[in-house]
Amino acid sequence: MEWKGRRQSSNVEDQSGSGPVRGGFGRGGGFRIPMGGGRGGGLSIGTIIFLVVIYLIFKAMGIDLLQVLDGGQTGQSGYEQSQGSTPGTAQQEETKAFIKTVLAETEDTWNGIFQANGQTYREPTLVFFTGGVQSACGQASAASGPFYCPGDQKVYLDTSFFDELSQRFQASGDFAQAYVVAHEVGHHVQNLLGTLPKVNEQRQGMDEASSNELSVRTELQADCYAGIWGKYTQQKGLLEQGDLEEALNAATQIGDDTLQKRTQGYVVPESFNHGTSQQRATWFKRGFDSGQLQACDTFNNPV
User: Fold this and answer.
1) Does residue 300 register a pLDDT over 50?
2) Where are the alpha helices (DSSP H) in the chain?
3) Cα(166)–Cα(171) distance, rounded to whole angstroms?
4) Which residues, listed in sequence order, are joined to residue 33 by a DSSP beta bridge?
5) Residue 31 banded pLDDT, cuts 50, 70, 90
6) Mean pLDDT in the chain?
7) For residue 28, with 0-12 CB atoms within 10 Å meaning exposed, 13-18 middle and 19 or more buried, which class applies?
């Protein structure tokens, strides 16, 4: 995909490298007064005074013992909060720049589509994180993969997922990565159009099998919406040879049947919640070929 030199989205929060809120996925740490020693299980007044004096002496010398004892990071009230990003490797920074560009391209596409339909597109925010993150939908780890939270209208992404996508799932290429982002943005489009709230309400009264089936239709529509974005990207002349094949391969490699065969050696169709490899590739291609929202009605058509 031709992307360098193009606009990058500013709707980005970079929490990678700073760690999640402790109590969810964060490590231990933080300055703690050592306990024990006396019968009462605490420190004597004299010991506390001594520690305070030592701390003040070092503070006057420009040395913060709190940071030293915590390896350079201190918490507030025993918690670690993300205070900003830590620069990553050159490859990681380039990946982030690429994702920001893809996000900007989705903004252009969906702003245009919504405007043509007399609606206003509210652009989502993309959050880079490392290991785990706290969202309005609760805590999540990198193991859950990229996700969209309708509660805060944000897409959450640990860029290490792309390493797994390439190495474990044999879905390499920048347009495979772009497909993943466009799929999550597709969920945002569903949220703005009222599809996600309706689906979530319906699933509450369903048995597991019926709920999974509705989930599949929701995910396939997001794939179709990703395909629509791909169509507009192609029309801009940004696609390179092999890009479409990269996206279709990614959709195939993360189909429920393919994933289950790879991990457990057999498939359980009633447990599918994203769609088979064929379904995912088919619906992405349908959106790509048509470029029309109407072509992505997975709820009233066979999937």
Assistant:
1) yes
2) 45-60, 65-69, 90-116, 160-167, 174-192, 195-203, 208-235, 243-253, 256-264, 277-290
3) 5
4) none
5) very low
6) 83
7) exposed
